[in-house]
Amino acid sequence: MYRDIPEELLEVIEPVVESSGFEVMDVTLTRGRTPWLLRVVLDTPNGDGRVSIDRCADVSREIGTHLDVADPIPAPYRLEVSSPGLDRPLSREKDFSAACGSEIRLQTRRPLEGRRRFRGTLLAFADGKVRLEVDGAEVQIPFDEIAKANRIYHFTRADFAGEAAPGSDAT
């Protein structure tokens, strides 16, 4: 979740990302055996997730340079910069607002109504609460209780119907 990004990392990463015309959607630092993994997810200001691989590579090089200077990570690390992808994370309030009507899965920080994992249709996001339809019942989850959430992408025939080659008879 965006709110959980360590401030010392956000202070280095966010200005670089914004100067490249993107927004920081999420940053996670996975500690453990070295090298640690620093994963940065970028999005466009309009939230369409259209960040090319080339642009991710450009931003990655720039972030890497700034991290080398600031040195906020006390261990060797590997940097990954990516776009949100099909199962885009929902980490900011605006991500939840934009995903209304979509199927999502989320995990809470502690059990709510006897469970931590929920999957259902996001009905609304308002007043700091997610309204979710799960198994035919409505559940309200405070935004502050959400540990992780993702939109669930459903493939359709259109996803596999590539454009017809020039001069072909395909319609």
Tell me what the structure shows.
- With 171 residues, the chain is an alpha+beta fold.
- The chain folds into two domains: 2-82, RimP-like superfamily, N-terminal (GMP Synthetase, Chain A, domain 3); 93-151, Roll (SH3 type barrels).
- It has four helices and eight strands; from the N terminus they run H-E-E-H-E-H-E-E-E-E-E-H.
- It has helices spanning 7-19, 53-70, 93-98, 157-160, and strands at residues 23-30, 36-43, 77-82, 103-112, 115-126, 129-134, 137-142, 146-151.
- It has a five-stranded antiparallel beta sheet with strand order 7-6-5-4-8. The protein has a three-stranded mixed beta sheet with strand order 1-2-3.
- The longest helix has 18 residues, at 53-70.
- The chain is globular and about 50 Å long.
- It starts with 6 loop residues before the first helix and ends in an 11-residue tail after the last helix.
- Residues 167-171 have low confidence and may be disordered.
Q: Which runs of at least 5 residues are low in confidence (pLDDT < 50)?
A: 167-171
Beta-strand percentage range:
35-45%
Number of domains: 2
Helix content: 10-25%
Spatial order of the strands forming the largest sheet:
7-6-5-4-8
What is the overall shape?
globular
What is the terminal-to-terminal distance?
A: 44 Å
| Tally of separate helices | 4
Cα radius of gyration in angstroms? 19 Å
CATH topology of the largest domain: GMP Synthetase, Chain A, domain 3
Major sheet: 5 strands, antiparallel
Give the class from helix and strand content and strand pairing. alpha+beta
Task: Please give the CATH class of the largest domain.
Answer: Alpha Beta
Query: What is the CATH-assigned architecture of the largest domain?
Result: 2-Layer Sandwich
Write the H/E string, N to C: HEEHEHEEEEEH
**CATH homologous superfamily caption of the largest domain:** RimP-like superfamily, N-terminal
The overall average pLDDT, rounded, is 89
